[in-house]
Amino acid sequence: QVQLVESGGGLVQAGGSLRLSCAASGRLFSSYYMGWFRQAPGKEREFAAAIGRSGSTTFYADAVKGRFTISRDNAKNTANLQMSTLKPEDTAVYYCAAGSPGDWRYWGQGTQVTVSS
After folding, report:
1. What is the pLDDT of residues 56-93, one digit of tens each?
2. For residues 45 and 93, what is the distance between their CA atoms, to the nearest angstrom?
3. H/E stretch holding 87
């Protein structure tokens, strides 16, 4: 069992930056891929970024590629999402997930990111 807690959301102006963090409990953190997903009002949850177990492989949705950077620290059981050049359309609840691509087993409660124009 893995418990995930996100932090770092907030209100930012367009063009600004935010850094989201995901703290994980449990001893098997390094055995999971970590992912970030987001859900905007009235829309379905969508994939944003993912990172492999060792951190050497990363994946990004086209909408965030070049602006967001995912990272992890297996020693600290944390995964981060550095978001830059934010746009109003990035406004969403951001969720951290653990598992593997196509089988995200564990989810955090989400953190709100609001980008004002």
Report:
1. 999 999 999 999 999 999 999 999 999 999 999 999 99
2. 9
3. none
